Every structure is written in C-alpha cells, then in structure tokens.
C-alpha cells in the first residue's frame, strides 16, 4: 500500500484529535519504534489495519466509521495535492467514472509496482452510477469514504447504496446524485 495513505492517515489523526494521540496509536499498533512512513514508500496494508484498530480503541469510534471518515479526508487531500486530476470534471459522477483511465493510469506511471484497487463503472443515467470496487485488500469502507469525499468536493450530495459482494474486498456502490 502506498505510503501516502499512511502519512495522510496520521496527519488526519493529528488534525482531528492530537499529535499525542497519533503517537499513542502508533505505539498501540506496535509500530511506534519502527514506523517511519514516507509518502513514496510501500507498506503492508495490515499495518494500516493495526493503526485503525488502535485509533478505534482509543476513540471508541467504530472501525468502519473511522475508515469512511479517513476516505473523505483522503479525497480532500488528493484535491489539494493533485488539482490537475480534478480540473476537467463536470461533476462527481464524471470524476468517479474516470478513475481508472485518468487517475490510476497516471499513478501506475509514477509507481509501477503499486497494487491499486479496480473500479468498474456503469453509467445508469446522468444522475446514477454503478461502481464496483475490487481489491486484494479489504478497504471497501475506504472507497465508500472516498466517494463521499468526492460528493463533498463537487458540492453534490450523493446517496450511496452499498452491497458487499465479497466482504470488504469487493463492493458494489450504487451512487445517485441527490
């Protein structure tokens, strides 16, 4: 998993909670002395799971809720850091429909070894998109949060219906502009 996801997670914890809690989460996850995440590094996704579990234990917030909040946060950070990917999109559904061709293609040019999730999209109508997330990692909740963050960015409330097809590794999202 790309290190940028780890560094953004820890930044979110620092912003929303505190620096001390971020340190405590690293320690409780068993990563305190060894975790020096860099944005360009690659890390085992199980370390992210440990971080989220530790944050959940510290805050009392359910894990799936934390991951969705992180997904929305991560989308906002992507907008700030990579504005060129967001400039030519008319709406949230157009953006989501183009993730594979516009975003993932560019990421793989920069990070050829990146193991990215796959998003298969079917445009049902101007206001409805069916999107299927498939990954070797169980981060359907992260994809759900990213979708919510996309709606926030485009100032378009999105109704997201979710069907887990294979746990959190394969999830179908039926997304409708409200």
Q: What summary fits the major beta sheet?
A: 4 strands, antiparallel
Tell me roughly what share of residues is in helical segments: 40-55%
- End-to-end Cα distance, whole Å, is 33 Å
Radius of gyration using CA atoms only: 16 Å
Description:
The protein is of the alpha+beta class and 178 residues long. 51% of the residues lie in helices and 18% in strands. The chain contains seven helices and four strands, in the order H-H-H-H-H-H-E-E-H-E-E. Strands 1-2-4-3 form a four-stranded antiparallel sheet. A hairpin with a 3-residue loop joins strand 3 and strand 4 (170-177). Helix 1 (3-16) crosses helix 2 (19-28), helix 1 packs across helix 4 and helix 2 packs across helix 3. The chain starts with a helix and ends with a strand.
Properties at a glance:
178 residues, alpha+beta, 4-stranded antiparallel β-sheet, globular
Short description:
By secondary structure, this protein is α+β, with helices and mostly antiparallel strands. The chain is built from seven helices and four strands.
How would the blueprint of this fold be written?
Elements: H1 3-16, H2 19-28, H3 45-59, H4 63-81, H5 92-97, H6 99-110, E1 118-125, E2 128-134, H7 140-153, E3 158-166, E4 170-177
Helix pairs in contact: 1-2, 1-4, 2-3, 4-7
């Amino acid at each position: 998993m790309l290190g940028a996801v780890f560094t953004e997670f820890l930044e979110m914890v620092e912003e929303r909670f505190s620096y001390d809690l971020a340190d405590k989460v690293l320690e409780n996850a068993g990563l305190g002395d060894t975790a020096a995440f860099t944005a360009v590094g690659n890390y085992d996704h199980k370390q992210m799971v440990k971080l989220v579990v530790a944050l959940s234990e510290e805050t009392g917030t359910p894990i799936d809720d934390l991951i969705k909040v992180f997904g929305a946060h991560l989308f906002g950070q992507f907008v700030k850091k990579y504005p060129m990917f967001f400039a030519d999109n008319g709406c949230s559904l157009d953006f989501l429909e183009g993730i594979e061709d516009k975003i993932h293609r560019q990421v793989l040019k920069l990070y050829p070894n990146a193991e990215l999730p796959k998003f298969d999209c079917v445009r049902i109508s101007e206001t409805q998109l069916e999107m299927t997330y498939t990954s070797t990692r169980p981060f359907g909740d992260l994809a759900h949060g990213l979708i919510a963050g996309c709606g926030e960015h485009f100032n378009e409330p999105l109704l997201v219906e979710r069907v887990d097809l294979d746990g959190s590794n394969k999830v179908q999202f039926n997304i409708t502009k409200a």
